[in-house]
Amino acid sequence: MPPRRTHTKSRAGCAKCKKRRIKCDEVHPSCGNCVKHAIECDFSSAARVLPAGMVSVSPSSSSELPVSSPMMLDASPPPGNGQHQVITPHQHGFFPQSTVNTVSPVINMTDMELLHHWTLSVPSSLTGKDDVEFIWRDVIPRLAFRESQGCLVHAILAISALHLAFIEPNERPQKMCIAADHYGEAVRGVKDSVSVPATINKDNCEGLFVSSTLIVVYAIANPMLTEKISPPTEIPPWTMPAWLPLIRGVHSILKAVWTWIETGCLAPLLGGHTYIGDSAGEDEAMNALFRICTDKREQDADEIKDSAVSQAYFGAIHELQKNFANEIALRRKMVSLIFIWPISISDAFFALLQERRPRALIIFAHYCVLLKKLEGFWWVEGRADYELGRIERTLPEPWRKWLEWPVKMIRGG
């Protein structure tokens, strides 16, 4: 009889092999027998408890997060006394230091699709300047990955989903629901960040600026897409669009740190805003606006006897005139034109607009011509006519003659 082969007895095998009384090859993180039988090996479970100094990655019970949470950001260490050290990227100098200690590996595949779509398609739809498209495509996502609040990530995903809703009508309701979830999270994050102005600093002001800008883009585009799904039976009266106070509110908070924003990585986005040239063909329309604020024969002449009110109107018209001059002189579609006038008008004029004073509405209707000029951008498409129709619905008949120029410029004819 041939001699019996000797073998080394497995003393550190996995529990599954011991239970089945078979030799374990002790290969980590899963032994050969467990791999062969497609069962979970005890070694793989044990591997999740790592010695100090190693990266800790915890599996999730679910492969998805809610749509509104593309990643979970945890700025606090895990509880308990047996805390282990987490190696973060900045310790090796790969990325700038962040306030985030760990990032869960849980990935929502819908959000991955949205981020992919952003990279491929969205940046070119946000700027009329080819030389700054890379800012939206490369620089701004990097800002998003650095921030601790997560508001910029959500703002990016909201706009990406909204853009898909615009170009894919068959999936519009679903994509708009996804966009709304991310928009809500972005707004919440920005509110939390700006609620304590002292916490706005050089490190987070750029992310807050871009988040706020994208929130405004969403607020401009969303109503038109909503009406494509469910058209109104009749045009309602004009009300203050949500994006106007958004623009003004964010600017009032960030103006204290504006020097950091305009000299940082976003500087190329903000260039070319010096007003030059004349308003050319718009001069006549602007002069007509000045007339309704001085002609005592017009309706409600007592209003313009108040010097504070008349100055508010004059200031708003002057700022609008400068916007038209800039657009004509530079001969390019500048997205910033949408934002500059709402920032430049006085609080007094803004109050008059909120009160839906006829003169204020007529001036705003002229501003909508700028929106029409920028309709090459998907998120502005239809907004000028949207506002004009509601202003027509609201203005008393004697005032509507002053809408002749905006109607011609926005609707043609």
How would you summarize what this structure contains?
Residues 13-43 form the Zn(2)-C6 fungal-type domain. It is built from 18 helices and two strands.
Explained architecture:
The chain is mostly helical and 413 residues long. The chain has three domains: 8-41, CD2-Gal4 (Irregular), CATH 4.10.240; 108-268, no CATH class; 273-411, no CATH class. It is 52% helix and 1% strand. It has 18 helices and two strands. It has helices spanning 15-20, 32-36, 42-46, 109-121, 133-146, 151-167, 172-194, 205-229, 243-254, 258-262, 267-270, 283-292, 307-330, 336-344, 347-354, 358-373, 383-394, 404-411, and strands at 73-74, 102-103. Helix 4 (109-121) packs across helix 6, helix 6 (151-167) packs antiparallel against helix 7 and helix 7 packs antiparallel against helix 8 (205-229). The termini are far apart. The relative contact order is 0.07. It comes from Tuber borchii. This is Zn(2)-C6 fungal-type domain-containing protein. Residues 13-43 form the Zn(2)-C6 fungal-type domain.
Major beta-sheet overview? 2 strands, antiparallel
Q: Estimate nothing, just give the exact number of structural domains.
A: 3
Q: Nearest-angstrom radius of gyration? A: 29 Å
Structural class: mainly alpha
The overall average pLDDT, rounded, is 78
* Inertia-based shape: elongated
Helix content: 40-55%
Beta-strand residue fraction: under 5%
Strand order of the largest sheet: 1-2
Give the total of beta strands: 2
Summarize the helix and strand pattern as letters. Answer: HHHEEHHHHHHHHHHHHHHH
Number of helices: 18
**Ends distance:** 108 Å
Give the uncertain stretches in residue-range form: 46-105, 272-280
